[in-house]
TrEMBL record:
Pfam families: SGL. This is SMP-30/Gluconolactonase/LRE-like region domain-containing protein. Residues 9-76 form the SMP-30/Gluconolactonase/LRE-like region domain. One of its GO terms (molecular function) is hydrolase activity. It comes from marine metagenome. The lineage of its organism: unclassified sequences, metagenomes, ecological metagenomes. The keyword Hydrolase applies. Keywords: Hydrolase. The keyword Endoplasmic reticulum does not apply.
Amino acid sequence: ASMKLDGFDNPGNADGIRVDVDGNIWASAGWVGAGYDGVHVFAPNGDRIGQILLPEICSNVCFGGRKRNRLFMTASQSLYAVYTDAIGAHMT
């Protein structure tokens, strides 16, 4: 089955994708410009529910830290990290 992610209809691309324990999709994005580069967060039904803007293209994301609530974002020339209310899904 396929799903359209709300707000991903312009020429930008999602590169790295992670999921939190609530089933939300965290997708790194870029290649469009200001107001789009960063991380987009989508609910399980595909609605965009959040965004973290970065000053450069975001190439990948992962959850880390002891509680898996720190989001690491790799970008063109930088590594960003932010604590979130979300907990990254555990890989088994």
